[in-house]
Amino acid sequence: MTFQSSSRLYAAVSALLWPAIFCAGLTGAYFAFESNMHLLWFNVVYLATVAVIAFFEWLMPYEKTWLKRDGETFNDVAHTLLSKGGVQIAAAIGTSFPMAVATVAHPVLSYHSHFWPDRWPLIFQVALGLFIAELGLYMAHRLAHEHLSLWRFHALHHSVERLWVINTGRFHFMDSLFKIALSQIPLYLLGAPLSVFLWIGAVTGFIGLLTHCNVDMRTGLLDLIFSTPRLHRWHHSKVLAEGNTNYGENLVIWDQLLGTFYNPPRPSSTDIGITGKVAKGFLAQLAQPFSRQGRKEIIGKKPKELILQEEQAAKAAAARRNSNARIRKSG
Ligand SMILES: [Zn+2]
Ligand SMILES: [Zn+2]
Fold this sequence. Notes:
Elements: H1 8-34, H2 38-59, H3 73-104, H4 107-112, H5 122-146, H6 148-158, H7 173-190, H8 194-212, H9 229-235, H10 240-243, H11 253-258, H12 282-287, H13 292-299, H14 302-330
The chain binds zinc ion (ZN) (2 copies).
Residues 141, 145, 154, 157-158, 235 line the site of one zinc ion.
């Protein structure tokens, strides 16, 4: 029996892959967090998950043309390492910050820490943490799409023309820092314990890998709750009305509540990318948003053209109104 998209086995694997990889990743994270070197073992589990997903990308790709090299692999990995470095520094601050608060006895923040329901079972604390962090992630992501001053950093993530597991972490470090700030600060202020931060990091890591993967997964009802590859492909669409949707990083609850959830009943877009141009090399990509010329290149010609079109349409409408008014006066 061959492993073809029409076979029953293919359909079963396609439907089971997302939950199976997610649960396996979390189980690995559990053992990593129980060990003495939890960051080291977590990274081992994470890399093993990357390898498993890469295998399924080869075996059952959603879009075959995305298997071709795009010359961006080095940059994808370099941005991932830089952004992950940022996250790990934040995690280190996360470790020392509550201790500093406790020892210096900052009265305001110590008081605030009473808000966190630390007697709940850990799984409910993590669910609450995810729900709160997700609002920050949603806001940071949506703002990055709706304001050019932030889009200049986020465009790097959208500049890819294929999705695969390796460009999951392709974020400008400024984009990552903005997201970390908006999602983690509320949790610090509420006094969430370090274990909640670690588990949110694990969930975000595995869902992120799955979100970007080029595997033909059938996610069905999962699309209503989690940010799945299907939803995220719409988010990468070149068509603005499709791309400015599905901002959720792990959960799509805030998209559902705030009207940006998008999941029409047809195969999700493979025509992805941006209208502007992102620089070629890693360092050039880091520097590009900070220069005037760079910003212009990132934003591209389309906004200017759109502005001109809108101006012309407004002028034509005004001319029509004037001539109608003249006709009415003379009539
Ligand atoms: Zn985006
Ligand atoms: Zn993406």
